[in-house]
Design a protein that fits this description.
About 25% of the residues lie in helices and about 25% in strands. It contains three helices and five strands; from the N terminus they run E-E-E-H-E-E-H-H. The chain has a single domain, classed as Rossmann fold. By secondary structure, the protein is of the alpha+beta class.
Length: about 140
């Protein structure tokens, strides 16, 4: 079973910036390498990124998930895309193996428009991380 989120320490949250694309990833601290995690990627599919760079970012995510154990009783991955609109491309419980997950990542569509990152973070928290408990 995946970890719930009663607290979200800063050393667990990492942000990768590549080609103007923000990818939110919950990563394991060194002491927790054998733990199971939920990974939620936020992919910037805005016009400023462009469709070509969006494909490069999907390739990055696909390579990343190829390096972790994926399964219903292992690490899980969800993807939120954002441009002018925000979409949960797929949820944490969607894929039970890395091959299906990589196919799902490949099928994520480019949205275009402006970068609505604030709404993307909100959707990741409220729509993807349903076990998340706010620190407020």
């Amino acid at each position: 079973m995946a970890q719930s989120y009663p607290f979200l320490p800063l050393d667990v949250l990492a942000m990768f910036f590549a080609l103007d694309v923000v990818t939110l990833v919950f990563v394991s601290p060194p002491a927790c390498r054998n733990s199971i995690y939920d990974y939620v990627f936020l992919l910037d599919g805005s016009t400023s990124v462009g469709p070509g760079n969006f494909e490069l970012i999907k390739d990055f995510v696909s390579r990343f998930v190829g390096r972790i154990n994926i399964g219903t009783n292992a690490n899980r991955v969800g993807v939120v895309t954002f441009g002018s609109n925000v979409e949960s491309a797929f949820y944490l419980n969607r894929y039970g193996n890395v091959n299906d997950l990589r196919n799902g990542i490949n099928n994520v569509r480019y949205l275009g428009g402006s970068s609505n990152i604030a709404e993307a973070f909100r959707q990741a928290r409220t729509d993807q991380l349903t076990d998340f408990v706010s620190l407020n």
